[in-house]
């Protein structure tokens, strides 16, 4: 697989996240509850994921493999996902989708640069470089321009 394929897929994933945020913030306004919207979104997502797993998975992990998974990995990603997505649904109607997505993306990039520098979560280290710092500063300027136009 060439490097361009993952780049295109990452771009499409970003578009999908913006679409999902836009649609679900509308649902949140209709339901008057970002957390109820998160619940609906996760139930439907779970059903779709269940179908995708049923169609695409050839080998399921054994009981012993499942037992060896550290307990916190079963819930920590979901906890942060529900909290983050709930915050998206809450803030999109207040900030606008472009401002919220750009600020949310900035939070993701800033945290990932720090986490990558220190190799948190067992991921490969990606040392801090001046180019990354410059990129963060450029993104900050971009957010200011998006917010104030």
Topology (elements, then pairings):
Layout: H1 4-31, H2 34-56, H3 63-67, H4 76-95, H5 97-118, H6 130-147
Helix pairs in contact: 1-2, 1-4, 2-4, 4-5, 5-6
Describe the structure.
The chain is mostly helical and 149 residues long. The chain has two domains: 1-95, no CATH class; 97-149. It has helices spanning 4-31, 34-56, 63-67, 76-95, 97-118, 130-147. The model has no long low-confidence stretch (mean pLDDT 90).
Secondary structure: helix percent: over 70%
How large, in whole angstroms, is the Cα Rg? 18 Å
Largest sheet: none
Average pLDDT level: 90
The helix count comes to 6
Strand % is: under 5%
Poorly predicted spans: none
Q: Whole-Å distance between the termini?
A: 40 Å
Give a quick rundown of the structure.
The protein is an all-alpha fold and 149 residues long. The chain has six helices and no strands.
Notable features of this structure?
single chain; 0% strand; 149 residues; globular; mainly alpha; 2 domains; 6 helices
